[in-house]
Amino acid sequence: MIVAKKQEITEYLCADSDPPAINHMSDDKIISSVLNSEINDHSDSETDSDDGVTEKRITMEEGINLGYQYLKFLESQKCVTEQELMTISRLQQKLSKEKANVLKQATIEQMFKKANLANLQ
Asked: 36: which residues sit within 8 A by CB, 6+ positions away?
């Protein structure tokens, strides 16, 4: 049989009565921070980090190059399995194919089809 002291029981029951001093926010602050974050998430402009410095978006080419560097780094690590390397390699190949599709030049027929569809709408 477990016996608990009265003081321990009181501390346990009253643990939530004192709000934490760190990160204490009122309901209004929580609501405004959520609304502000939704507005920031929907903006297409450059995002601001916490220190006020704007971060530029990484282009597809830069991302692919960084991915290759990361893959080389992982290959030199002993804690990374071959299966994990293959997964990342497949993602890298998928991005490379996507880049090729984005950069593929449109044919004249495709351009006319798009122009006709735009005129019909």
From this structure: none
pLDDT tens track for 54-72: 778 888 888 888 888 999 9
Q: What is the 3-state secondary structure (H, E, C) of 86-103?
A: HHHHHHHHHHHHHHHHHH
Distance CA 77, CA 82 (A): 11
Contact 67, 91 (CB under 8 A): yes
User: CA 73, 77, 80: angle at the middle one, nearest 5?
Assistant: 105
Q: Two tokens at 69?
A: 């560097």
Spell out the residues 6+ positions from residue 54 whose beta carbon is closer than 8 angstroms to its own.
46, 47, 48
Asked if 63 and 95 touch (Cβ cutoff 8 Å), the reply is yes
Burial 86-121 (b: 16+ CB within 10 A, else e): eeebeebeeeeeeeeeeeeeeeeeeeeeeeeeeeee
Radius of gyration of the chain (CA): 27
Percent over 90 (pLDDT), the chain: 7
